[in-house]
Known about the structure:
Helix content is 60%, strand content 13%. The longest helix has 15 residues, at 94-108. The two termini are 32 Å apart. The protein has helices spanning 12-15, 19-31, 35-46, 51-58, 62-74, 94-108, and strands spanning 49-50, 78-83, 86-91. Helix 4 (51-58) crosses helix 5.
Amino acid sequence: MEYDHSQHPAAIPAQMPPESQLADVAELFKIFGDLTRVRIIFVLFQHEECVRDIAQKLEMTQSAISHQLRVLKQSRLVVSRREGKTIFYSLADAHISSIFGQALEHIQE
């Protein structure tokens, strides 16, 4: 059976988001493409943490964690809050949590 192209809506290109938005989506997936950042996101997916605790859980240096948190924060995937001298990090919003949760669910199927 041959595909009937006449049934395919011609307006799909008009629904395409602007190129700049698609580039932002590609950049988002690049950020998720680093194993260290994904490990940090997994820790923060559970609950907020400080750099020292993330470093201990991932058996990495605080410097390495801080560097990756900076990237994640610049990409608006994590946010921070200060409590005294300690800075706590968490996922930026429910969208990030949902994206990560769905990715985990997908690979565990």
